[in-house]
Structure prediction request, 364 residues.
Amino acid sequence: MEIPQDFRLASYDYDLPEDRIAQQPADRRDGSRLLVLDRAADTLTPARFTELADYLPEGALLVANNSRVIPARIFGMKPTGGRVEFLLLTPLPLLAPAPAPDLGDGWLAAPAEGLLRASKSPKPGSRVTISDDLFLLAEEPSPFGRWRVRLCWRGDLTGHFQAMGHLPLPPYIRRPDSAADRERYQTTYSSEAKTGSVAAPTAGLHFTPELRAGLAGRGFTWAEVTLYVGYGTFSPVREPDIRNHRMHAEYIEVSRETVDAVNRAKAEGRPVVAIGTTSARTLEGMYRACGEIAEFSGETDIFIKPGYTFKVVDAMLTNFHLPESSLIIMIAALAGRARVLSAYNYALENGFRFFSYGDAMLIR
Prediction:
């Protein structure tokens, strides 16, 4: 049987010249461009991000992901002297450290998941030394380079990663991370207490405190959720029929304060605008888990694709996404596949920059 076009993975492909992938952020956070896709009017309007307030639905509640990126890529040595790269995938707040008396006084250990890369893959049970106060035991391999490991450390684990780790820039940014990325690959509202994402919620990178103050002055309200962005956000959809795709799980948190803000907006007829696909996934994942808008913390593996009816989100601010990715499929569920691909074609013809450090699109 022929796969319907909306469910055919190849229907979400488009040609993207390499030079359109932003390798550096704009000079200013809010200096990026904005493409406004109006579904009701079926129009595309180019604008500046600083003009966002002029295009948001009146009285909108903006919901942003406050998770913070950890410098999760760290390097160590095998006993043979071989170099090993480790990318921590388990968010730090979700680790369950316990005393490790077998290692000596002051040592802690916790199971974790990560990616291990070396010229020769470590053997299960082998030790990777990162510093005198941090090492890991490679316990069990999983598909696609993932490993279950035992992290062992003395002192402050977050501090060790902050001191020695590198920001895991997306693979399409073809340069090493720099000191500037430590600031620009974080949102200005990210919470230190929510450190643990391995990728930034990039739609939020455009916001400055001044722009947010201007939005508040125009009557727009703000709420926050947490989704710890996993490396799976870059995993390709491999199924020719996207209905067979199994989505990676990510940990989300929706607080009572945010629930109250969303319910208040709904009661007052004000639209809920998700700042990025991660915020949209959190709100819709919460609704699927609870059957209503309610306080929630736990994992979601929701896969939003055409045919899905959004229960919480009315509009979305997002960046431009990879061909055939779960993210472009999600926004197609909101705006329609043909309309999204038409908008992407317009963006390419008019010099918009793509992906994490690129420009933004408002779907209203």
